[in-house]
Amino acid sequence: MNKKTLNDVQVINKTVLVRVDFNVPLVNGIITDDNRIQAALPTLNYLINNGAKIVLLSHLSRIKEEADKAKKSLAPVAKRLQEVLNREVKFVPHTRGLELETAIKALKPGEVLLMENTRFEDVVNGELVKNESKNNDALGKYWASLGEIFVNDAFGTAHRAHASNVGIASNIKENCVGFLVQKELEMLSQGIDNPEHPFVAIIGGAKVSDKIGVIDNLLKKADKILIGGGMAYTFFAAMGHNIGKSLLEEDKIDLAKEYLEKANGKIILPIDSATAESFADVKAIFTDGIDLPDNLMGLDIGSKSIKLFEDELKDAKTVAWNGPMGVFEFENFKTGTVAICEAIAKLKDSFTLIGGGDSAAAAIQLGFKDKFTHISTGGGASLEYMEGKTLPGIEIIQTK
Ligand code: ADP
Ligand code: MG
User: What does the pLDDT look like over 148-159, one tens digit per residue?
Assistant: First the structure.
């Protein structure tokens, strides 16, 4: 990787601003899943052990009006972080001002400070100004002035240019990525940019329109693309099949045709479906073949398709997966997604990668967390990486 990492900067006695992703789920002020806090520990422990004065910035959810602020404070996160680090975390309930500046100046090497939710800056005096989310220049400059080195360790927002990542990074002398972002980039680059062949991509999810960029980019890189999920039905419609009540994006039929031609046999579609009469978690009606009667909607791939996809995956050296094969949230329509997880779990010595929020959640929820080489922590960011886009939060980081 050509971007500077923590190993390329001297952090001892320096005030280091770290953009972390502490956007944890909160229910009535209680953190229901602290994975994102745990994920920041390698970087934080390294900085603590190497004598940095650590200032943490993170967003939490969205702030659209003044009233959101009470429920979206990072105070509970500071408390949890203090427990997992087993050391004091100084929480400053502001995103600017004298109290924050004084507390930062008072930090000693190895001490940790967390400032309030960066998106509090999106609403100023009751007005939605989006200073954080639209990368207000003055805000980025101000935050940058509070430290000497900037570390971007928030992969989940790397596809956005916000004041707390791009703004700070472009206004500070030295910057680098943290260990979490470094690992994401190394894994995604191995899986997408330097794959060992055969490289099989699996693309699913609800809509073709969400995945056009991924199909487009992976057609150039993969040997085969297996397509499942709701988006498969727009492809079937493009081939002239009857898809019943299945999800259809009519305005994408021509594009689907175009891709089928361009793919030259690389795209493999399901050959049967698990269906229901409505979008509900009811016993599946299995269909033979692709055409569906008018009253049915396809909610998962069928058993012949599973077999077909398993065969295609058997010899893969690299697998990149984005988008579930069916409505995995329904007990009756998770079979295809589980089968793909199992087929991938069986591969020995292959590089296997999941990108995409729902696919990652599905694999984890279905019990396959440790069966993949890498499950990306950044839904939108990993999707954009798979589309071959540059991520502004990474782009701005200095090269070695
Ligand atoms: P990711 O977040 O991994 O990129 P998407 O957001 O594109 O994935 O798609 C996930 C959603 O697609 C899931 O909520 C799932 O229920 C839905 N889905 C999958 N197959 C179908 C289908 N046949 N019909 C309707 N929705 C589907
Ligand atoms: Mg999604």
Answer: 999 999 999 999
Per-domain residue ranges of the chain? 6-182, 195-386
Q: Which ligand is nearest to the CA of 355?
A: 1
| Residues near ligand 1 (Cβ within 6 A) | 205-206, 210, 229-230, 247, 298-299, 322-324, 326-327, 329, 356-359, 379, 383
Select 195-386's CATH number: 3.40.630.90, 3.30.530.20, 3.40.50.1260, 3.40.50.720.
3.40.50.1260
Q: Is 99 helix (H, G, I), strand (E, B) or coil?
A: helix
Q: What is the mean pLDDT of residues 377-391?
A: 93
3-state secondary structure of 38: helix
Residue 223's pLDDT is: 97
User: Which ligand 1 atom minimizes the distance to the CA of 210?
Assistant: 7
Which residues share a beta bridge with 375? 354
* CA proximity to 165, closest of 189, 188, 133, 130: 133
Between the CA of 207 and the centroid of ligand 1 the distance, in Å, is: 7
pLDDT in tens, 59-81: 999 999 999 999 999 999 999 99
